[in-house]
Amino acid sequence: MTVEPARSAAAPSPSSSEPAPRAAAEPAVALAPPPAARSAPPGGRAAWVAWSIGVSVYVLAVVHRTSLGVAGLDAAERFGIGASALSTFSILQVLVYAAMQVPVGLLVDRFGPRRVLLLGVLLLSTGQLAFAFSSSFAPALASRAVLGCGDAMTFISVLRIAARWFPAAKNPFVAQLTGLAGMGGNLVSTVVLAQALHSEGWTPTFTAVALLGVAVFALVALFLREAPAAVRPVDPPTAAARPKVRRQVLDCWREPGTRLGLWVHFTTQFPGNAFGLLWGMPYLVEAQGMSRGEAGGLLTLLVLSNMSFGFLFGRLLSRTARARMPIVLTVITTTGLGWALVLAWPGGHPPMWLLVGIILVMGSNGPASLVGLDYARTRNPAERLGTASGIVNMGGFIGTMITLFGIGVLLDAVSPAGAEAYSATAFRWAFCWQYVPLAVGTLMILRLRRKVDA
């Protein structure tokens, strides 16, 4: 039946009763590219430009997210709080981030990543500006919650832009590059922000970080194209045609690849995340007796290691999907064994070479967690990719939240009342908490991998 219009257009019959305008319009329909061709992402320079603009928002979000990691001791002094209350800042921020993942995924699927990124920049800047001028615990806590909400809107949006612009085979590498670029934001926090806090003070430093959002917002609003014309749907789905929220979330969850991705993300991300977000600086300064400059240098090494592993894993995964599970299990094993050696060292003061070693190993945590997102991407259709990515992306941040809270509670529990600093022994016992989520996550991965072609 599709041949007849083309034949009549090539040699129209004089006896045809069709009106001229309709006959003239038919060749355009017959010659239009098939849906498969229209939906193929082109890649190329335009794709990298779009990705670069989107990833600038993610880099900014990581600067905001990790800013407390270098300001933990300053925050404790400014607000007059202990370890449990200090960990509440990061826990709440991560809790909001994790809770927003599925709603953000749904928003991305329905309204597109560009609008979600713009909203994310507004929330990031608002939260950080409020944090800059907070002088008591409660307002500062609320501002970190707003910041976490904005942070939640960035990574999934950038992945969705990449999926629309790049061929499917290139997506694992681009996802790793996205994480690597985010580590650039972490580097800004550990190097620039730490120095600015020391020289300029609390309010000027965090105000300057908040105002960076103005430039990034303008960049996204003016120049970001979230998809090339060739892959944009001709007619956006109406509200009536969209699947119900509950149905879309359930369909994603029933897919074993989504659940495996969540537990991979959960198990691999949290050790390095908890160390870099909050407890790394206090551990190195108070337990290991380092200066802030020396501790900042090791945290910088964590970022550089993360970037190196991101590039390595991205190259491996772009060549073969069979590398996914070996990467995950190797990272989990080396992280667990590395911390066992550090915590078992006599006196709780491991030598510098061992501290450098565990930090290098934790640099693999973030890149390995992105393997979970690749499981979700390959096992879910495009129309629910944002929702599936949101479910997976909750995993690592739930693990981080559990770890941050557990370490904070144990530090206060094993330390003498009124102690101004935590001893090496206190940190030693508190950091043992990491093995609880590590064991749970590993068991879930081993169980679910049987249901997925890993």
What's this model, at a glance?
The chain has helices at about 5-10, 20-30, 35-40, 45-80, 85-110, 115-135, 135-150, 155-165, 170-200, 200-225, 245-255, 255-285, 290-320, 325-345, 350-360, 365-380, 385-415, 425-430, 435-450.
Describe the protein's architecture and organization.
With 454 residues, the protein is mainly α. It contains 19 helices and no strands. Mean pLDDT is 83; it is low at 1-38.
Describe the protein's topology.
Blueprint (H helix, E strand, L loop, with lengths): L2 H8 L9 H12 L3 H4 L6 H35 L3 H29 L1 H21 L3 H15 L3 H11 L5 H30 L1 H22 L21 H10 L1 H32 L4 H28 L4 H21 L7 H11 L2 H15 L5 H30 L9 H8 L3 H14 L6
Helix-strand pattern = HHHHHHHHHHHHHHHHHHH
Overall shape: it is globular
Helices, by number, come to 19
Low-confidence segments? 1-38
Range of strand content:
under 5%
- Tell how many strands the DSSP assignment holds: 0
Helix proportion: over 70%
Structural class: mainly alpha
Q: The biggest beta sheet, please?
A: none
Question: Top keywords for this entry?
Answer:
454 residues, mainly alpha, disordered N terminus
